[in-house]
Amino acid sequence: MSDLEDDETPQLSAHALAALQEFYAEQKQQIDLGEDDKYNIGIIEENWQLSQFWYSQETALRLAQEAIAAVGEGGRVACVSAPSVYQKLRELCRENFTVYIFEYDKRFAMYGEEFIFYDYNNPLDLPERIAAHSFDIVIADPPYLSEECLRKTSETIKYLTRGKILLCTDSFARFPGWSAMAQSQPTATSASLVQVILLPQPPEQLGLQARAPHQEHKPAAELQEL
């Protein structure tokens, strides 16, 4: 082969080569993962730029158990921005429940058809196969504490749920008609507490009916447990 032919051989840039190597590494990771491993919490690393802080095993287990108890065998569960709970549910129940993960991070597409790309900025931009009020319970953990994020996430919740909701939030704002179901321990990577709330039926304006400013906020110890 002549020097001219060598010069004409296509060469990848350093950036393109790095991206290709990353792709092959991810593919190899998915191949290497067995059925018993791919649902482990932390198998996909946290990305703090996406406000990702995985639950501890204990917190994820508590939430998964509450969801299972709420819907019963054969129930349909939607995990909105709560991948750790999805993973724990799938670890506990492989066939007895239908579980979907609604998540912005496309790395979770490794879970196949159970992964639904979700951007809270477009709360109702969902595939046609996801029908309204098709889930027995929705578990949601809005990625940001802003009112806008909670409001838009609530639109998704109202669309998906048949009635029951587990809302996990670092905000201690109280909403009329909401009963606190549990107060978990801090997560493994965050000092924030997770407030867990169950609604038999969603209020008219879910996430918008905040307490009046003059009302006194009850301490966490006084929250009613169902």
From TrEMBL:
| Top EC group | transferase
Broad class of where this protein is predominantly found: cytoplasm
Molecular function (GO) terms for this protein are:
nucleic acid binding; protein-lysine N-methyltransferase activity
Q: Which GO terms describe its cellular component?
A: cytoplasm
The UniProt keyword set, sorted, is: Cytoplasm, Methyltransferase, Transferase
Q: Which SUPFAM superfamilies match?
A: S-adenosyl-L-methionine-dependent methyltransferases (SSF53335)
Which sequence ranges are marked TM in the entry? Answer: none
Record function comment = Protein-lysine methyltransferase that selectively catalyzes the trimethylation of EEF1A at 'Lys-79'.
List the protein's name: EEF1A lysine methyltransferase 1
Q: Which organism is it from?
A: Macaca mulatta
